[in-house]
Design brief:
20 helices; 28% helix; globular; six-stranded mixed beta sheet; binds beta-D-glucopyranose; 19% strand; alpha/beta
C-alpha cells in the first residue's frame, strides 16, 4: 500500500510546481494591466487582428491557442435579444432565450430614481450573464432633440443632467455582473432618417453642454467598459472612427480605458478605423438593420485590409496593440474574470423589477376631478378601448426587439386586477398595425379587423356610453414610422385616426381616461375634453400589471416627464430653425449637413427661451397626494459647495413619492444662458403628514457654462438663482445667492 502512495505524492508535487509557472495572463491574482501585457506579448499578428473585428453577427473571436474565449455581445437596452443565426439577423429559433422585457429607457428616466436605475442595470445584467453574454449593447443616452426621432424610446430624455445621473447606476448595475455595458450611440445621433449619411454641425458649447454630458458621466462616473460609436458623421468623419470624438474627447479628455465598438455597419474606411479610435468592428457589410452578406468577416475594414497594410509596411502596429490591449482589458473584466457571478434569467426578482420600474415610471399627466384612482365601489363597468390595450409591444422597433417570456397586455392587467371588482368590457376603437413580427420572432396575435373607422368609433361610443369609466389605451407602436429604429415619425400627431376616436368617446363619457403608450411626445388637441391622461411608455413584460397598479391606486404615481410634451412641433427649437434633418449637399454625394442651429436650446431650454406654454412641461407628473414645499435655506460649505435645504411635506391623505427638482439660473452672465437648467433632483417617499428635509449641494461645475475659447468650464461670479419645484413649470420655492 505504501508503495502505491508514493507516486501520488510526487504527482501532487509536480502539479504545485507547474501552478507556479501559470502564465501571468491566466493568473487571476495578477494585476489587470500585467495580464493584458502578458497576453498581448504572446499573440501573433494574425491573432491580434482576429480579436478586433466580428466573427459572427454578435460575437468576435478569442484566441483559441491561448484559451482566450470568444466575446459575445447582445442587444440591449431593454432585455436580452434572442439568439440570432451565426451570420443573419434572423432569430435562431432557440427555446431557452426568452427574456424578461424591462420597460423602455424613457420609462426608466421617468422614475427619476437612481436606485431604480441600478436595479434595472443589475437585473438586465444578470439576464445577459445567464445568456453567456459579455457585452450588453446599452444603455442609450442620446438627447431628445426632436420628438420625431424614432429611437427616442431607447434613450433617457431631453436633459443632459437627468440622463447623466440616471445612466451611471445602470452601467454599474450591469457591470457588477462581469458584463460590460456598451453606452450608445456616441454621439450626436439624434434622428434616424439618413442616419448613415448625416454630418452634424454643432458648436462646441452645445456639444459639451447638451450632447456629451451623459456619455461623459457613463465613462467617468460609471466607468463604462465599452461605448458604441454612432452611424452619423461629425466634422465630416463617421463617428465610429472620428478622431475628435474618440481620440481627443473620449480617450483624451475623459481617459476612457475601454473598448470603442462600432455600430453594426458603422465602419467605412480602414485608414480611419486604424487611427481614429475604433477598437472593435461589428456588422460591416450590413446596413445595420436588415441587409447583410454572408461570411464577409475577413473582409472587414479591420481584418485582412488592415493586416495587408501592416504586412506591406504601410502602417505600423502601435495602433493595433492599443486596440488589442483595450479588448483584452475588457475580456479580463468580463469573460476572463473567473470570479464573476453566474447571472439568472426570468427570475421572480426580475419580474418584480420590471413591475417596479414600470409602475414608478408611469406619469400621471392630468387627473381632473380626482377620477383616479379608480373606485370599485358598486362594481363599476370599465370600458377599455384601443389597439394598444391588446397589442404586444415587445416585438418590433428595431434592434431592441425582444422575445419576451411573457407580456401582460394592458387589458389583461386591468382584467387581472379588477376582474372580480368590476365589469371590464373591450372595444377595438382603431386599427393601427395588426402585424407582429421581427426577425422571425412572432407575437402570434392576429389583430386584423376589417371594420371601417366609422364602425369602430360607433362601437367604442356605444361601449363608452354604458360604462362608468372609459380607459382608452392608444398612442404609437413599434412599427416603422412610429417608435422604431431606422425611421422617424412624419409628424407629432397620433396616428390611425385616434384623435377622432378620443374626442368621440370623451363626448359621451365624462370619466374618460387616456393612456398614451409611446416613447415620444404626441399632440393632444383634445386635451381639455379628457379629464385624465397618463403617459404609459413601453412597459415590457409587466406592462398591464404596472398600469393596473397605478389605475387602482395600489401604486401612487410618482413618475415625472423626462422630456417636454410640446403642443405642436412649432414649439420645438430644432424645428423652428428649418428642417430638423438638415440639408442634402448639392455636390453629387449622398451626404446631408445637419446644423444644430438651435444650439443649447433643446427641450425646456427652448420652451423657456420663447416663453411657450407646453402641453406638459419637462419634469411634470402628478400624484394621488399633494406636496408642500418650504423655503430654501442656503449655506456655503467649507469645501466650496453651496448647500440648499428645504422641507417637503406630504400634505395629502395617502403615502407617495415626490421628485423635488432644482433648477439654476444665471441671469447676469455675459453669454446667453438658458432661463434655467436642472442641476439636482431628489425623490423622496413620504407618509401622509410627513415632512423631510431635502438637501442639494451645488458645485461650481453646476453654475458654469462651457467656454469655447478656453475650452473649459467657466464660472462667472455674480448672482445666481435657485428654483426648486415639482416640475420645470411648477416652481415652489426660490432663492438667490452670490458667488465671487
Ligand atoms: C443599432 C444598435 C444595435 C446594433 C446591433 C444597430 O442597428 O443601431 O443600437 O446595438 O444594431 O443590433
Amino acid at each position: 500500500m505504501k508503495k502505491i502512495l508514493l507516486p501520488t505524492v510526487t504527482l501532487l508535487f509536480s502539479l504545485s510546481v507547474s501552478s507556479k509557472t501559470t502564465p501571468v495572463y491566466l493568473d487571476p491574482s495578477a494585476p489587470l494591466e500585467d495580464r493584458v501585457e502578458d497576453a498581448l506579448s504572446r499573440m501573433t499578428l494574425e491573432e491580434k487582428i482576429g480579436v478586433i473585428h466580428a466573427q459572427s453577427k454578435f460575437s468576435s473571436a478569442g484566441v483559441p491557442r491561448l484559451g482566450i474565449p470568444e466575446l459575445w455581445t447582445t442587444d440591449g437596452p431593454h432585455g436580452i435579444r434572442p439568439e440570432v443565426l451565426w451570420d443573419e439577423w434572423e432569430q435562431a429559433g432557440w427555446t431557452n432565450d426568452s427574456c424578461i422585457a424591462f420597460p423602455a429607457l424613457t420609462c426608466l428616466a421617468a422614475t427619476w430614481d437612481p436606485e431604480v436605475s441600478y436595479l434595472y442595470g443589475k437585473s438586465i445584467g444578470e439576464e445577459a450573464r445567464y445568456r453567456k453574454k459579455d457585452i450588453l449593447l446599452g444603455p442609450g443616452v442620446n438627447i431628445l432633440r426632436t420628438p420625431l426621432n424614432g429611437r427616442n424610446f431607447e434613450y433617457m430624455g431631453e436633459d443632459p443632467y437627468l440622463a447623466s445621473v440616471m445612466v451611471v447606476p445602470y452601467v454599474k448595475g450591469v457591470q457588477d455582473n462581469g458584463v460590460a455595458a456598451c453606452v450608445k450611440h456616441y454621439a450626436l445621433n439624434n434622428n434616424e432618417v439618413n442616419r448613415h449619411m448625416t454630418n452634424v454641425i454643432v458648436d462646441d458649447r452645445t456639444l459639451y453642454e447638451i450632447y456629451l454630458p451623459a456619455f461623459k458621466a457613463a465613462v467617468e462616473g460609471g466607468h463604462a467598459w465599452s461605448i458604441m460609436g454612432s452611424y452619423n458623421l461629425y466634422n465630416d468623419e463617421w463617428n465610429c472612427h472620428n478622431s475628435r470624438l474618440l481620440n481627443d474627447v473620449l480617450k483624451g479628455e475623459w481617459d476612457f480605458d475601454g473598448v470603442v465598438v462600432s455600430d453594426w455597419g458603422g465602419t467605412h474606411i480602414t485608414d480611419q478605423a486604424i487611427t481614429n479610435g475604433l477598437d472593435l468592428e461589428f456588422g460591416s457589410w450590413t446596413n445595420g438593420l436588415s441587409a447583410g452578406t454572408s461570411n464577409a468577416y475577413d473582409n472587414y475594414f479591420m481584418a485582412y485590409p488592415y493586416l495587408e497594410k501592416i504586412k506591406s509596411g504601410e502602417v505600423g502596429t502601435e495602433e493595433l496593440d492599443n486596440k488589442v490591449r483595450r479588448v483584452l482589458r475588457l475580456m479580463f473584466r468580463t469573460n476572463m474574470d473567473s470570479s464573476r457571478p453566474y447571472g439568472s434569467m426570468a427570475s421572480e426578482s426580475h419580474m418584480k423589477a420590471a413591475h417596479k420600474i414600470g409602475s414608478d415610471g408611469i406619469v400621471l399627466l392630468k387627473n381632473d376631478g380626482n377620477i383616479l384612482p379608480l373606485s370599485t365601489e358598486n362594481k363599476p363597468t370599465i370600458a377599455v378601448i384601443g389597439e394598444n390595450a391588446i397589442k404586444m409591444m415587445t416585438v418590433g422597433g428595431g434592434s431592441s426587439s425582444l422575445k419576451a417570456k411573457y407580456e401582460i397586455s394592458p387589458l389583461e392587467g386591468i382584467r387581472n386586477h379588477f376582474g372580480d371588482k368590476a365589469n371590464v368590457v373591450y372595444a377595438r376603437g382603431y386599427v393601427g398595425d395588426p402585424s407582429g413580427e421581427y426577425n422571425g420572432v412572432v407575437t402570434g396575435q392576429d389583430l386584423s379587423d376589417n371594420r371601417s373607422e366609422m364602425e369602430l368609433i360607433k362601437e367604442a361610443r356605444e361601449v363608452a356610453t354604458n360604462a362608468d369609466y372609459v380607459i382608452i389605451i392608444g398612442g404609437l407602436n413599434k412599427s416603422a414610422g412610429q417608435d422604431c429604429e431606422d425611421s422617424d415619425r412624419a409628424d407629432m400627431k397620433l396616428p390611425y385616426n385616434q384623435d377622432k376616436l378620443i374626442e368621440a368617446v370623451a363626448e359621451v363619457n365624462p370619466k374618460t381616461i387616456y393612456i398614451n403608450i409611446s416613447g415620444n411626445p404626441v399632440e393632444m388637441p383634445w386635451v381639455d375634453q379628457v379629464p385624465v391622461i397618463l403617459q404609459g411608455w413601453y412597459l415590457g413584460s409587466e406592462a398591464g400589471n404596472a398600469l393596473a397598479s397605478v389605475l387602482s391606486g395600489e401604486v401612487n404615481p410618482s413618475g415625472k416627464l423626462p422630456m417636454t410634451f410640446p403642443q405642436t412641433l412649432d414649439q420645438v427649437e430644432s424645428h423652428r430653425h428649418g428642417s430638423y434633418l438638415g440639408k442634402p449637399r448639392n455636390d453629387g454625394t449622398p451626404f446631408v449637413d445637419n446644423e444644430y442651429a438651435e444650439g443649447i436650446y433643446v427641450g425646456y431650454r427652448g420652451m423657456d427661451k420663447n416663453n411657450f406654454t407646453p402641453l406638459f412641461p419637462f419634469g411634470h407628473g402628478l400624484s394621488y397626494t399633494d406636496f408642500k414645499y418650504g423655503d430654501i435655506k442656503t449655506d456655503l460649505l467649507e469645501n466650496g459647495l453651496i448647500e440648499l435645504r428645504l422641507n417637503v411635506t406630504n400634505s395629502g391623505k395617502i403615502a407617495g413619492a415626490e421628485v423635488a427638482q432644482l433648477y439654476i439660473s444665471d441671469p447676469e452672465c455675459s453669454v446667453p444662458r438658458p432661463v434655467k437648467e436642472l442641476k439636482g433632483f431628489k425623490k423622496v417617499y413620504l407618509e401622509p403628514g410627513e415632512t423631510r428635509e431635502i438637501v442639494f449641494q451645488v458645485s461650481p461645475q453646476d453654475l458654469s457654462y462651457f467656454d469655447v475659447e478656453s475650452h473649459g468650464w467657466r464660472l462667472e461670479p455674480g448672482m445666481f438663482e435657485a428654483s426648486v419645484g415639482s416640475s420645470s413649470k411648477d416652481i415652489r420655492s426660490k432663492t438667490r445667492f452670490a458667488v465671487d
